[in-house]
Write a structure and sequence with these properties.
By secondary structure, the protein is an alpha/beta fold. The protein has 12 helices and 12 strands. It has one domain: TIM Barrel (Alpha-Beta Barrel), CATH 3.20.20. Helix 2 packs parallel to helix 11. Bound molecules: NADP nicotinamide-adenine-dinucleotide phosphate.
């Protein structure tokens, strides 16, 4: 039987591994063969991965379109779909934030059409729009829910204080923050809050954009967006890859790959119900699906954390300016 978890207060039963479709954004990841990603979605479904994540922004709608093609080929009620809203797109596809009610209403209709569905299971605010009042944003989300266009709503990339404030105004039940074992800052604030409040947490980039998969030596160079990412450069990249390779003996004891060991450990945090993994091929999602229902000994979990927190790693500033 497929392995599922109850997704916080939404009550939805979802697979703890969620298929991420950001890889269908050519300007970040280069061109992915559409057919290969579609095959990977079917492989996911066959392996019990029934939760899919996309966004209005991924590939300017390509992510939602390809997911829509997949949805047309499987029973809709067997799949949970999460998508996001945020951008106002100019004709040249440059963008600016716009969560105003009129714009969200319009985008939601476009997204429903691309997905070929009459209801989005989980609808997230992709980022913070500082200009639209929180009451206006919450009002339109409630309206969409009452009209049956979305089932649940939540946020992504919102600091804990912002999320807490929104939850005073509406039923924000889901949160999608970035998290990996080398970027675990939200363990200090957002995760304890979500755990206590029974928020459905689906973390993104759990393999740190591929870095924790164990397939890099530290000498690689990238042509996608990782060519500018500080963790994929020079001494820091080499040191991180070295630490990741130290995980091999632990992985082998569990009959797992390093990728699977890291994903299993990520899902052990009590606040995290779901990990959204970025997928390009069927083989990748099968490997991810293999961790569902698996767990590690407490001692090994903390050994993994110790290895990946190696103090010799050169420190960098992340996107928010914090040093890690
Ligand atoms: N809400 C947001 O703002 C936000 C932001 C980012 C992502 N997300 C969501 O989260 C998802 C995951 O994030 P991410 O793409 O950064 O994730 P990730 O899972 O940390 O890394 C994905 C990369 O790992 C590599 N990979 C995947 N499976 C593998 C396997 N089995 N073995 C070896 N390598 C493997 C692939 O890259 P290579 O094959 O090129 O190495 C893939 O592109 C996205 O697709 C998206 O749905 C959301």
């Amino acid at each position: 039987m497929a392995h599922t978890v109850v997704f916080g207060s939404t009550g939805l039963k979802v697979s703890p591994v969620c298929f991420g479709t950001w890889q269908l954004s050519p300007r970040f990841w280069g061109d992915q063969p559409r057919q290969e990603v579609l095959q990977a979605m079917h492989a996911a479904f066959d392996a019990g991965v029934t939760f899919f994540d996309t966004a209005d922004a991924y590939g300017d709608g390509l992510g939602e379109k390809v997911l829509g093609e997949f949805l047309a080929e499987v029973p809709r009620d067997k799949v949970v779909v999460c998508t996001k809203v945020f951008n106002h797109f100019r004709p040249d596809s440059s963008r600016y934030p716009d969560l105003s009610a009129a714009h969200v209403r319009q985008r939601c209709d476009i997204e429903l059409k691309r997905l070929g569905t009459d209801c989005i299971d989980i609808y997230l605010l992709h980022l913070v729009d500082v200009l639209t009042p929180m009451r206006e944003i919450t009002g339109v989300l409630e309206e969409l829910r009452q009209r049956g266009k979305i089932r649940h709503y939540g946020v992504s990339n919102h600091p804990v204080e912002h999320f807490r404030a929104l939850r005073h105004l509406g039923d924000y039940a889901v949160c999608q923050p970035p998290y990996s074992l080398v970027d675990a800052g939200i363990e200090k604030d957002l995760l304890p809050y979500c755990e206590a409040e029974n928020v459905g947490v689906m973390v993104y980039s759990p393999l740190h954009k591929g870095l924790l998969t164990g397939k890099y030596t530290g000498s690689e160079t990238f042509t996608d967006f990782r060519q500018h990412h500080p963790d994929f450069q020079g001494e820091r990249f080499r040191a991180l890859c070295g630490a990741v390779h130290e995980l091999k003996p632990i992985a082998e004891r569990y009959g797992m790959s390093i990728y699977q060991l890291v994903l299993t450990a990520t899902l052990m945090h009590p606040a995290i119900q779901v990990a959204v993994v970025g997928i390009k091929t069927a083989a990748q999602i099968r490997e991810a699906a293999g961790v569902m229902g698996r767990t590690l000994d407490r001692e090994d979990y903390f050994e993994i954390r110790r290895i990946l927190a190696a103090p010799s790693l050169p420190r960098v500033k992340d996107a928010t300016g914090k040093t890690r």
